Amino acid sequence: MATIYDIAKKTGFSASTVARALNGKGYCSAAAKEIILRTAEEMGYVPHEAAKMLKSNITKKIMMCIPDIMNPYYFAMIHGAATTLERSGYSILLGYTMHSPEKEFEVLDSLKGHFVDGVIFGSFDYTPALIDAIEATGLPTVITSYYQSPSGFHGYDCVYVDQPQAAWIAATHCIEMGHRRIAFLGGNPKEQNTRERYEGYRRALEEHHIPVDKALVLHADFTRDGGYQAFYEFLRHGEDCTAVVACNDLMGVGCMKACSDFGLNVPNDISIVALDNTEYCFCTTPAMTSVDMLQGQVGEEAAGFLLDRLLEKRAYQKNMAFSPVLVERGSVKKLG
Amino acid sequence: MATIYDIAKKTGFSASTVARALNGKGYCSAAAKEIILRTAEEMGYVPHEAAKMLKSNITKKIMMCIPDIMNPYYFAMIHGAATTLERSGYSILLGYTMHSPEKEFEVLDSLKGHFVDGVIFGSFDYTPALIDAIEATGLPTVITSYYQSPSGFHGYDCVYVDQPQAAWIAATHCIEMGHRRIAFLGGNPKEQNTRERYEGYRRALEEHHIPVDKALVLHADFTRDGGYQAFYEFLRHGEDCTAVVACNDLMGVGCMKACSDFGLNVPNDISIVALDNTEYCFCTTPAMTSVDMLQGQVGEEAAGFLLDRLLEKRAYQKNMAFSPVLVERGSVKKLG
DNA sequence: CTGTTAGCGCGTTCAC
DNA sequence: GTGAACGCGCTAACAG
């Protein structure tokens, strides 16, 4: 691997002249520059990243932390972030926290090694301890959820879609279509994600004076199979409802399958609306109505926020919230 | 950010003693070690990655290049690779080549900056130029396809599933189920990926003395919508077949949708078998028969191969091939 | 066992 | 305009 010294030796210039020529800063005659650039090209010179980093403390890398790499929810987000970051020469380091708080702390702790310039952090559950760990990295960070620090002050930015609203939209859609017995298929109720979505569901019902029936509130794990199991069990126990709000597409798909295995036709016997609006919605028969969480936009904006801090040196905190949008397909039937 | 010098100053030891204490190499009294480790802890010391890299030329990072982050084919592969790499303290840098040869070259060229220790490279189309670029990085690399270098010699490892065999299995399954007019729904015929799969299809037909009908060979782009359009067009032109081999699940889903939009029932009017066996197969009605390409295993083994080179200093070339496996579901009907 | 010293490759003063 | 020299933080060889 060629260094600036090799180029210096070959051209007869000094290493610092080579350095100046190469990155265009500082004085350097056009003639010298010409020669140096050419021989750098010839020698296949590529600057040693580690050396640059050590000097500049700039890595041109962003860590993107996500809980689950198999969850399609994040694909569009990664895609969006990667695309906009790439435009400014940044690349993405994948941090894969496997839905585990320990893992999250571990990843965040390692970040103190200064091997990335910023962080996009996604989690199902933001606890004060997690937020502390995020702040402790000292890195520009944007989190992809809304989180109000207990102290009220914080340095990280938030880019997110309004989660309660998403579930509210889904539930309200069911209500407007004439449903009143509407099940809620969520994840772990301890986690912020499910709590928020449940809150939106609850509020929608409340607004229409429909009491929440605890028997209709199911908790699975955001997987297709989990959704299937939970809903099949629900049906087997003789519970009934005319519609269900599934907290993600995967569970929606599982739920739909459970219905069909149970002899129920969607949407004639039961309506389903899911959240996330991924490709899965197109695969089912009927195609699944779902609430678009604008993951791609979240990824893009999150990356934009980071670049703004990094490149433009923005020093104040900013939030950005998106309103999810309902995408109607064929899995909801109008009653009455 | 605390450095070993800060710790040295605070404890009264020299920087090198601190370094030795910290990474357990070289002599250091237990007493000194004790003090040093404690104050390092107190000061929240984390070694500066760039400095270590510069010295050791070890980054503990692997670049994983994939053509398309939205293609579910790669999810399991990333997952598998991430999981096994993580066990040895490596993390994944995502290289996102967007299905474009230029982008591939660009990424590979940047790799000369020594900011990763190895590469897992996935592409739809390995050309000699691409292979040259891979070799030029000088990095341990495993590619996730089979590729026979023109010269016959190469330094990179291959971990892959037998692509022709996958299509062969799919087509043979159709034939064994009594089908003889079997369509092939592939991607760009110029790309290795489609060429290989077509070859398997062709061979299966040949083995059963079924002539290949060019009218039944369709080319789309590996997307759901592309598959839909191509197959709908096919049906609209009045072509007919009793079964189709779709080169990936996404196109299989699109194809199935095209059939149903055209009033054809799957599997009664037409059978479909796809390749990839992703979650999408569970979403369709009926669930889609597909050939499992063992992407997870490929990811794991590719990572293992790399670790083997990196950690165990393996210096000889190795290949590993998996045989895909048919997963029967409900989209194929037995004829006659 | 510990401290001194000399780089790793690059960017950046500062004299010339 | 150009080159010499220093330092980023850490590791490793050597001397003590």
Description:
Two copies of one chain form a homodimer. Chain A is of the alpha/beta class and 336 residues long. Chain A has three domains: 4-55, Orthogonal Bundle (434 Repressor (Amino-terminal Domain)); 59-162 and 295-324, Rossmann fold (3-Layer(aba) Sandwich), CATH 3.40.50; 164-292, Response regulator (Rossmann fold), CATH 3.40.50. In chain A, 44% of the residues lie in helices and 16% in strands. Chain A has 13 helices and twelve strands. The first copy, chain A, has helices spanning 4-11, 15-23, 30-42, 49-56, 73-87, 101-110, 128-136, 163-176, 192-207, 224-236, 249-261, 280-283, 295-311, and strands spanning 61-66, 91-96, 118-121, 141-143, 157-161, 182-186, 217-219, 243-246, 271-276, 289-292, 319-322, 325-327. Chain A has a six-stranded parallel β-sheet with strand order 2-1-3-4-5-11, with helices on both faces. A six-stranded mixed β-sheet of chain A has the order 7-6-8-9-10-12, sandwiched between helices. The longest helix of chain A is centred in the C-terminal third of the chain and has 17 residues, at 295-311. The radius of gyration of chain A is 26 Å and the shape is elongated. Chain A starts with a helix and ends in a 9-residue tail after the last strand. The mean pLDDT of chain A is 94. Chains A and B meet through helix 4, helix 5, strand 2, helix 11 and helix 12 of A and helix 4, helix 5, strand 2, helix 11 and helix 12 of B. Chain A binds a DNA duplex (16 and 16 nucleotides) through residues 3-5, 13-17, 19-20, 23, 25-29, 32, 47-48, 50-57.
